[in-house]
Amino acid sequence: LLISDSRYAFACAIVLIAGNAVLRRIPQQLGFVLFFGVILAAGAIVLISGVSAGRDDFLGRLYYTFNSMNRLDLPMLLGFKFDFAVKFMDSGLLYFVVSQSLPVVVLLTVLYSVGIVATGPEAKLYKTCTLIAVALSLLISNSLFSIKVAALMWYCLGAFASASSRNKTAQSAPVNAEINLAGLQHSK
Fold first, then answer.
1. Phi-psi region of 108 (alpha: psi -120 to 50; beta: other; left: phi over 0)
2. Residue 120: helix, strand or coil by DSSP?
3. pLDDT confidence of residue 175
4. Which whole-number Å values give the CA distances from 62 to 1, 65, 117, in the listed order?
5. Which pLDDT does position 5 carry in this prediction?
6. How far apart are CA 155 and CA 149, in angstroms?
7. 177 in helix, strand or coil?
8. How far apart are CA 178 and CA 119, in angstroms?
9. CA–CA dist 37, 129 (Å, integer)
10. Sign of the dihedral defined by the CA atoms of residues 104, 107, 111, 113, in that order
11. Phi and psi for 24 in degrees, rounded to 5?
């Protein structure tokens, strides 16, 4: 995921590595708060840095995203002007909002956080880190929507879900065997 766009790879890696200890303790159902928190933090970085032009670097792309938000009107936020999405190709977040609508973006983020329940600690961390990586990626490009990135993200999530499901089955199998043995012994 980090190699999908070199403009954010370093920043994303630093955020995920530095936040590892904290991210492990955050309930997975609150992941959507992190998603929107990353977006707000990026806006604060643009304000604090004083950047005033969109350059072709990470900070310039952040500036482009937040400066372009001024061009959004209510029909765009509600997804009624989806044909304008192509004007925001360099900002995945605005492309996503204009093409799908702000309510859909919020709903999908909340559903990912609440609706998909990861069971193992690695799966929970992956789920949380994915939301942060997605937020960072959407701030600077729409590469998230390419098959090479999205497919890998969903594959990894499915692999974690499958592994935790197998672990649950393996852990419960001996218990079931003991119950069955106890039942056989009792029936003798």
1. alpha
2. coil
3. 43
4. 19, 5, 31
5. 59
6. 10
7. helix
8. 24
9. 13
10. positive
11. -65, -25
CA angle 6, 1, 38 (to 5 degrees): 80
Instruction: Output the six-digit token pair for 99.
Output: 């093409």
CA-closest candidate to residue 124, choices 31, 62, 33: 31
- Count CB atoms within 10 A of the CB of residue 186: 7
Contact 39, 184 (CB under 8 A): no
Residue 3 DSSP label: G
In this prediction, the residues of the chain whose per-residue pLDDT falls under 50 are 1-2, 173-188
Distance between CA atoms of 84 and 46, rounded to whole angstroms?
A: 24
Q: What are 83-116's pLDDT values in tens digits?
A: 888 888 878 899 999 999 999 999 999 998 888 8
Please tell me the predicted confidence (pLDDT) of residue 180.
Answer: 35
Length of the chain: 188
Query: CA 62, CA 66: separation in Å to the nearest integer?
Result: 6
